[in-house]
C-alpha cells in the first residue's frame, strides 16, 4: 500500500506488439482513481479501435484492469489485459477522469483529510490530462503576435478549406479547386506556345487555356526492318536468388539470357537442421507427432507436428521454418502380388515305335498345360522262366513261370487287387491300441503344413480375440517348471497398490522459452520453463481424459530478468486477474494448476520459491 502521488507524467503509455501477438498484461505506469478512468485504443495501419472495460472474462473487444491500491484512495499503477491477443498493433493506454465533484466539506468543524487529498489529487490529475491535450494540439508559439483563431461559422466553412490572410492573422474559408477544365487553340506554324489559367474562388473551378503551335508535316520515312526477339540462354541460379533477364543483342534484334532460381531440398529426415540459410528447403521423410516448432503456409499459426512428405522453407528474416505446398507425396502402398504361374500335364499319348517324342502347350504362358507323345518301345524277344521275390525280412522265394505271386497284407495293412495288373496297398486307420495311418489336423490356433513327407505344426500369435502364443516382458513375470508367476511390482488396477519406490511424474523442460509456448498436458504433468524472452502460453493440449490432473508449472527468470508471462483464454486465473510473475533475474515462480474440463486449465496464484 502507498500514498497516491501525482508525478510529472502525461498519464499515457503506448506498447507495440510483434508478429507473435500479445494480450498483455501491459503495465500502467501512472496513478488513477477508478478502474473506469483507464481507456484503451488499439491502432492497426492507421485505424483506431476503442475497447471497453469488463469486470472479468473480457470478450475479444474488451479489457480488464488490475490496480495497485494506494493507502487512501485510488491506485498507484497497475496493468491492462486484453480479451484477445493483437498482432503488430500499437496499444495506447491513457487516463480520462470524469470532471465532476462528488464531495463537499463543511464550512466549519472537522472534515475528512483523505477525501480532501483525493479531490486535490484528482484536480491535479485532470490539469495534467488537459496539459497533455494542450501539448498535442495546434497552438500559437509564445513569441507569435496575437492572431484571430476564431473559425468562420459552419455555413461559411462547409465544403471549404481554411487559410490565413496575407498577414497570417485571420482565418478565412475558401473553396479549393472542385473542378478543372481546359481549352486548346492552334497557333500558326513557327509561332510560340501560349498558356493561361483562371480560378474562381466562389465555385472552385480551375480553367486552363493552351495555345499549341502547328508543326509542319514531315516526309514519310521508309519502312524499317522488323525487330526480332530470341531466347539466347537459360541458366539455373542458386535457390532463393532473384530471377534475371538480360538482352545480349540490340533493341532491334533482342537476344535474351534468362536466369531462373533453382529449387533444392537442403536436407531430409524428421528433425530440422541446426544452421539453415535463407530459402533452404527441408523434406520430412517420416511423420513427427509432436515437439516441432514451425509455422503454417500463412506464417501465422505455430505447428508442432508433420506428416511424411511435408516440406518447410527457412526464413532468415523471421528465423523460422514455414510449411510449403507439398512437392513430394507420401510413399505409395506396395502393389498386390501377382498370380503365380501354373504348369500342368494335359495328356500322355503312345506313338508308334521308332517315331519322335512330342510335347505341346495346350494352355497359356501363365497357365501351361503340356500334352506329351511318347513312342512305343520295340517288342523284346525271349521269355521268363522264374524270378526271385525278396523283402525286408524272411527267406527269399523263387517264383516259377506259371506260378501266382500273392501280395498279402500285414499288421494294419491291407492289399487290394484291381484291374490292369494293379495291387493297391492301404494302411489301416490308426487307433489308440493299433498302429495305422494317422492324419495330423490343426485346430486354431494350431495349423499343420506338409513338405517332403514332414508335417510341421505351427501355433499362431495370440490376439485380443484369439488364443495363441503370447509373450510378456521378462521384468513382469517368471516361469519355472511350466508355472507362470507375476512379479509383485506389477501394478494392479483393481486393488490398492503399495509402492516401495517413489513414483516420478513426467516433466517437460524448456531451457530457453521465448514467444508462444504450448504445454502438452497429455504427455507431461510438471513443467520447468526457463525464460529467454517474454513468454505467451498458447492454447494448451488437453483431452477429456486429463480432467482432474494436477501439477506445477515452474517459471524461472533468466539472468536478464524482467520477462513477462501472457496466457491464452483457455487458462483461468483467480478473479480473472491474469498471471504476473516475479521479474527479478533468476527468480523462480511456482504456479499450481488443475485441468477442470477439456481445454480448461485453472491456474493458482504464483508463489515465489526463491530468487
Describe this entry's structure for a reader.
The protein has 611 residues and is mainly β. Among the domains are: 12-135, no CATH class; 148-176, no CATH class; 265-324, no CATH class; 507-610, Jelly Rolls (Sandwich). Helices cover 4% and strands 40% of the residues. The chain contains 2 helices and 40 strands. Strands 33, 34, 35, 36, 37, 38, 39 and 40 form an 8-stranded mixed β-sheet that branches. A 7-stranded mixed β-sheet has the order 1-7-3-4-5-6-2, with no helix packed on it. A 4-stranded mixed β-sheet has the order 16-17-20-21, with no helix packed on it. A hairpin with a 4-residue loop joins strand 11 (194-200) and strand 12 (205-213). The radius of gyration is 49 Å and the shape is flat.
Distance between the termini: 23 Å
* Mass-distribution shape: flat
Q: Which secondary-structure class do the elements indicate?
A: mainly beta
- Determine the strand fraction and express it as a percent band: 35-45%
Q: Share of helix among residues?
A: under 10%
Number of DSSP helical runs: 2
Flag low-confidence runs.
328-332
Global Rg:
49 Å
The average pLDDT value, as a whole number, equals 79
Characterize the main sheet. Answer: 8 strands, mixed
Number of strands: 40
Amino acid at each position: 500500500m502507498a500514498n497516491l502521488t501525482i508525478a510529472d507524467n502525461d498519464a499515457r503509455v503506448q506498447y507495440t506488439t510483434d508478429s507473435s501477438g500479445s494480450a498483455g498484461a501491459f503495465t500502467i505506469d501512472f496513478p488513477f482513481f477508478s478502474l473506469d478512468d483507464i481507456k484503451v485504443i488499439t491502432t492497426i495501419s492507421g485505424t483506431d479501435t476503442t475497447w471497453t472495460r469488463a469486470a472479468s472474462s473480457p470478450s475479444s473487444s474488451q479489457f480488464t484492469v488490475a490496480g495497485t491500491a494506494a493507502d487512501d484512495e485510488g491506485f498507484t499503477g497497475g496493468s491492462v489485459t486484453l480479451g484477445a491477443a493483437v498482432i503488430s498493433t500499437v496499444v495506447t493506454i491513457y487516463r480520462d477522469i470524469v470532471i465532476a465533484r462528488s464531495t463537499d466539506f463543511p464550512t466549519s468543524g472537522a472534515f475528512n483529510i483523505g477525501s480532501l487529498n483525493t479531490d486535490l489529487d484528482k484536480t491535479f490529475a485532470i490539469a495534467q490530462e488537459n496539459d497533455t491535450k494542450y501539448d498535442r494540439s495546434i497552438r500559437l508559439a509564445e513569441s507569435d503576435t496575437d492572431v484571430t483563431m476564431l473559425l468562420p461559422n459552419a455555413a461559411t466553412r462547409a465544403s471549404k478549406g481554411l487559410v490565413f490572410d496575407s498577414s497570417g492573422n485571420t482565418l478565412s474559408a475558401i473553396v479549393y479547386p472542385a473542378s478543372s477544365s481546359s481549352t486548346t487553340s492552334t497557333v500558326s506554324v513557327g509561332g510560340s506556345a501560349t498558356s493561361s489559367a483562371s480560378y474562381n474562388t466562389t465555385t472552385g473551378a480551375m480553367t486552363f487555356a493552351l495555345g499549341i503551335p502547328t508543326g509542319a508535316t514531315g516526309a514519310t520515312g521508309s519502312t524499317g526492318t522488323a525487330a526480332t526477339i530470341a531466347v539466347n540462354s537459360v541458366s539455373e541460379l542458386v535457390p532463393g536468388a532473384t530471377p534475371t533477364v538480360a538482352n545480349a543483342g540490340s533493341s532491334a534484334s533482342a537476344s535474351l539470357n534468362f536466369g531462373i532460381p533453382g529449387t533444392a531440398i537442403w536436407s531430409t529426415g524428421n528433425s530440422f537442421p541446426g544452421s539453415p540459410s535463407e530459402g533452404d528447403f527441408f523434406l520430412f521423410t517420416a511423420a513427427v507427432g509432436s515437439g516441432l516448432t514451425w509455422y503454417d503456409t500463412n506464417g501465422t499459426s505455430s505447428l508442432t507436428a508433420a506428416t511424411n512428405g511435408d516440406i518447410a522453407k527457412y526464413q532468415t528474416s523471421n528465423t523460422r521454418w514455414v510449411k510449403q505446398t507439398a512437392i513430394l507425396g507420401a510413399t505409395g502402398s506396395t502393389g498386390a502380388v501377382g498370380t503365380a504361374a501354373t504348369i500342368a500335364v494335359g495328356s500322355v499319348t503312345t506313338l508308334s515305335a521308332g517315331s519322335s517324342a512330342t510335347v505341346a502347350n495346350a494352355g497359356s504362358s501363365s497357365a501351361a498345360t503340356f500334352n506329351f507323345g511318347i513312342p512305343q518301345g520295340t517288342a523284346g524277344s525271349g521269355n521268363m522262366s522264374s524270378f526271385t521275390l525278396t523283402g525286408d525280412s524272411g527267406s527269399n522265394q523263387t517264383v516259377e513261370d506259371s506260378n501266382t505271386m500273392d501280395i498279402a497284407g500285414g499288421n494294419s495293412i491291407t492289399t487290394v487287387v484291381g484291374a490292369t495288373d494293379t495291387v493297391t496297398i492301404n494302411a489301416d486307420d490308426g487307433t489308440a491300441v493299433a498302429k495305422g495311418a494317422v492324419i495330423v489336423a490343426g485346430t486354431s490356433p494350431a495349423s499343420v503344413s506338409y513338405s517332403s513327407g514332414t508335417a510341421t505344426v505351427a501355433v499362431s500369435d495370440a490376439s485380443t480375440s484369439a488364443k495363441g502364443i503370447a509373450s510378456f516382458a521378462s521384468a513382469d513375470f517368471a516361469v519355472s517348471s511350466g508355472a507362470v508367476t507375476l512379479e509383485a511390482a506389477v501394478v494392479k488396477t483393481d486393488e490398492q497398490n503399495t509402492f516401495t519406490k517413489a513414483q516420478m511424474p513426467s516433466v517437460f523442460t524448456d531451457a530457453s522459452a521465448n514467444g508462444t509456448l504450448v504445454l502438452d498436458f497429455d504427455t507431461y504433468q510438471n513443467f520447468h520453463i526457463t525464460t529467454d524472452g517474454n513468454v505467451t502460453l498458447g492454447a494448451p493440449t488437453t483431452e477429456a481424459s486429463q480432467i482432474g490432473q494436477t501439477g506445477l508449472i515452474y517459471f524461472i527468470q533468466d539472468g536478464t530478468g524482467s520477462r513477462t508471462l501472457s496466457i491464452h483464454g483457455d487458462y483461468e486465473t483467480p478473479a480473472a486477474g491474469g498471471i504476473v510473475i516475479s521479474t527479478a533475474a533468476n527468480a523462480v515462480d511456482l504456479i499450481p494448476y488443475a485441468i477442470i474440463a477439456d481445454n480448461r486449465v485453472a491456474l493458482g496464484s504464483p508463489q515465489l520459491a526463491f530468487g
